[in-house]
Amino acid sequence: MTIVHVICEGQTEEAFVKELLVERFAHRGIYLMPVLIGRPGHKGGNFKFDRLYPDVRNRLLGDRQCYCTTFFDFYGLPQSFPGKTALNDQAPMASKARALEDALIAELTNKLGEDVVRRFIPYVQMYEFEALLFSHPESMALGMDQIELTDTFTSIARQFETPEHINNSPQTAPSKRIENVLPGYEKPLLGTLAALEVGLDVMRQQCQRFNLWLTQLEDLA
After folding, report:
1. What are the structural domain ranges in the chain?
2. pTM higher than 0.90 for the full model?
3. What CATH class is the domain 2-127+207-218?
4. What top-level branch of life does the organism fall under (predicted)?
5. 155-171 exposure pattern, b = at least 16 Cβ within 10 A, e = fewer
6. Which residue among 128, 133, 137, 211 is least crowded, i.e. fewest CB within 10 A of its CB?
7. Which residues contact 152 (CB under 8 A, 6 or more apart)?
8. Residue 27, CA distances (Å) to 1, 16, 21, 22, 30 in order
9. Separation between Cα atoms, residue 105 and residue 96, nearest integer Å
10. Local structure of residue 20 (DSSP, 8 states)
């Protein structure tokens, strides 16, 4: 049995892990344990390194056999987060994510040591969780019970190389694009329903970095 603690940014990411990942990974003997960043009962958010570090430390030192990973958005991270400003805004999406993940590994290694951090698998979603939903616009709209938005979501998706490239300005982040056409968008509920409708296999086909993360977790078996 392999235990992997998944430190999530918010309730939507936590629900995603529970609804789409836990059962599938359990069949492989990998038990994912999603938890919100910070103290119990907190709703998540405010993903500062100083709040993340105790969560990672306590889990990796509390169980010398377990693993730990993260599931949070690049969008909205504070400028002080390790690696956030390593590259300029024009750098390729994958390069920015890699720089941030490498900087996070380096910071944790400095504090916890290389042997401990070998059991840490960083993952940062570029740019928001909602980007994954654009892997199949029709299913996304259906899951939100807004099938009339299929063409709108399709038009957005076609503007980018992959769903993971849908960008991160305050006006054009994936969630903002949804809110522009669906006022009152409820992220935890509608985001999860849409994710279930789109399905994990389609997301993995369309989102290379997301698929790579899940492959790394599967390899722990």
Report:
1. 2-127+207-218, 129-205
2. yes
3. alpha beta
4. Bacteria
5. ebbeeeebbbbbbbeee
6. 211
7. 181
8. 11, 17, 10, 9, 7
9. 14
10. I
